[in-house]
Amino acid sequence: MSMLVDFLCRFGFGLALGLVCTPGGLVPAGFYRVNILVVMGLATFAALVAGSAVPSAAVWMLSAAAAVVAWMGSVAWFAERRGAGMAACLGTGLALGAATAALASFVPGGGGGTLPALRHLLSGAVVGLAVHAMLLGHWYLNAPGMSVDALRRSIDAALLVWGLQCGATGLSWLAGGPAVGTGSHTAFALGALRWLAGLAGLPVLLWMARETLAIPNTQAATGILYVACLAAIVGELAGQLLAASG
Description:
Blueprint: H1 2-21, H2 29-53, H3 57-78, H4 82-103, H5 114-139, H6 148-174, H7 185-212, H8 218-245
């Protein structure tokens, strides 16, 4: 169950990061209000499970605090108080980021130290920003006059974080981690899936979505981003299971 809490905190952190990185002047307040509520749901679920699954009070306290701040942010965005709403998004992301870093010491295969915590944070950022870009693309159905630059910047942020994650993965290999799962057919399959979906497939899909915006066709780009979300989630879940099996 600690792996579930880990994924929920990672995912919520990444979504909150996406909201913080999105320029408030380019996107309607309704987008922030809806998606900060999604983060609130993830944080609430994490707090409920962490109470019995993680031997650290800090994790569930941080998750619960993130849920409360996210709820406050939804109220601020409903009132179109952009400054307060953005501050709440930032506070929610910081709380879930701290919970994610703390969980690196408690999940199977996590290990303590700075590098494991960094890998967990980058993993959450990759998933969260990919899903955030898809949700933002879907929002063009509600606000067709919204600038395409908002979606383009969101995809660029996802690509940037993917690059940072590849660097952290390389450091992990240099520190003695396996490049592909070894020791069993299951571990090898998980390692291959991690490579094909998360590390190799995701940037190709993000680049295709970005190039589609040059037409511009936000609906087609969003369709590609749906597949990119699946690749990111599958890749990172495979990475979690691979670390736990090691």
